[in-house]
Amino acid sequence: MRSQVFRLICVIALLGGLVGAGEVSARDDDHDGDDRESQDSEHDGSENEVSFDLAPSNADIARCLPHLKAHVEVDLRTARKGRDKFRIEASGLPPNEEFTVFLLEIPGAPFGAAEYIGDFSTDEHGQGENTFKLIVEEAFSSTLVNGSRVRVDLNHVGFWFADPAGDDVCFGTGKGPVTPFDGDNEAGVQAMNSANSLPGAPLPPP
Question: For the chain, which terminal residue's Cβ has fewer other Cβ atoms within 10 angstroms, N or C?
Answer without folding.
Answer: N
